[in-house]
Amino acid sequence: MPLQFELCPGRMIGGSHPCFIIAEIGQNHQGDIEIAKKMIKMAKDCGADCAKFQKSELEYKFSKRALERPYNSKHSWGKTYGDHKRHLEFSHDQYRELKKYAEDIGIFLTASGMDEMAVEFLHELDVPFFKVASCDANNFPYLEKTARKGRPMVVSTGMQSMETIRRVYKTVKEHNQKFTLLQCTSAYPLDPKDVNLSVIRKYQEEFPDVPIGYSGHEKGIYITVAAVAMGAKVVERHVTLNKTWKGNDHEASLEPSELAELVRAIRLVETAMGSPDKQMLPCEKTCHDKLGKSVIAKVTITKGTVLSLDMFAVKVGEPKGIPPENMQNLVGKKIKVDVEEDDSILADMIE
């Protein structure tokens, strides 16, 4: 059984627990806290477990030159990249307001700490778990400092090699037993041929004591549902209120109707996964009573005859007789009564 742990207060992941569904709002709120609240409410209404943002302390995430460079994209919110990012960044007080709002409506809220100082703030904010973005998966000082804080961690693994992920596993596990690794490909939107869901199985084999999940950037919901069928215990998808809005992530995000359908599909698949024990179920009895086949006399068989396979046929009989899978066991035994051709052979007819 894979490792199980409490990711959020009262919410276990791993093992047979339901998949934990993260609605990644990121910066699709357009820098507007009221839109952010609407998106948190949307995530709650659609059945997601958690609404997630991206928190940066810009001077710690970017160099001065990176912030000062011109940013002429159609998605820009300012003349420089710094102006653009500052427009999209909520203050500490705004994050406190958003966290209280999420608590009031009953959904977990966290954020990716995009630099070490952002992690410090999120720790102070008392988020239930830290999300590590793919861009920090190979930032080992960051990983170690974050792991040492003791909060559960969800680590995306886009843009990394298997060798690096082995180091991630060892680094985090040395300081923190409560973490999960998400298969991820960092492209927006993601072409299905680059999803590589097979990495989920590779991670499950290499890290059997860690719940494995999936962070998807593809269009639609089918691939994410397939990830859950493969055993993903956490899934993350970007969400938006409108795919046509300004911003790089909107096109690869799910609108409310899609998120709601994803949640329904995941819960349906989880129900359908059922048990690995193969047996005839009570719900099959009606079909078996109507169509289940039995061993039938292919010819007239007289009392005392030693039975052989050439005497048997398999048909839907009345009454139900010996199941076909037991037919071989009849060979060499004697029949105690006369049996007419096309009659069922019953267990009490055999010596």
Automatic annotation (TrEMBL):
<keyword id="KW-0808">Transferase</keyword>
<feature type="domain" description="AFP-like">
    <location>
        <begin position="294"/>
        <end position="351"/>
    </location>
</feature>
<dbReference type="InterPro" id="IPR013785">
    <property type="entry name" value="Aldolase_TIM"/>
</dbReference>
<dbReference type="InterPro" id="IPR006190">
    <property type="entry name" value="SAF_AFP_Neu5Ac"/>
</dbReference>
<dbReference type="Pfam" id="PF08666">
    <property type="entry name" value="SAF"/>
</dbReference>
<dbReference type="InterPro" id="IPR051690">
    <property type="entry name" value="PseI-like"/>
</dbReference>
<dbReference type="InterPro" id="IPR057736">
    <property type="entry name" value="SAF_PseI/NeuA/NeuB"/>
</dbReference>
<dbReference type="GO" id="GO:1901137">
    <property type="term" value="P:carbohydrate derivative biosynthetic process"/>
</dbReference>
<protein>
    <recommendedName>
        <fullName>N-acetylneuraminate-9-phosphate synthase</fullName>
        <ecNumber>2.5.1.57</ecNumber>
    </recommendedName>
</protein>
<dbReference type="GO" id="GO:0016051">
    <property type="term" value="P:carbohydrate biosynthetic process"/>
</dbReference>
<dbReference type="Pfam" id="PF03102">
    <property type="entry name" value="NeuB"/>
</dbReference>
<dbReference type="GO" id="GO:0047444">
    <property type="term" value="F:N-acylneuraminate-9-phosphate synthase activity"/>
</dbReference>
<dbReference type="GO" id="GO:0006054">
    <property type="term" value="P:N-acetylneuraminate metabolic process"/>
</dbReference>
<dbReference type="InterPro" id="IPR036732">
    <property type="entry name" value="AFP_Neu5c_C_sf"/>
</dbReference>
<dbReference type="InterPro" id="IPR013974">
    <property type="entry name" value="SAF"/>
</dbReference>
<dbReference type="InterPro" id="IPR013132">
    <property type="entry name" value="PseI/NeuA/B-like_N"/>
</dbReference>
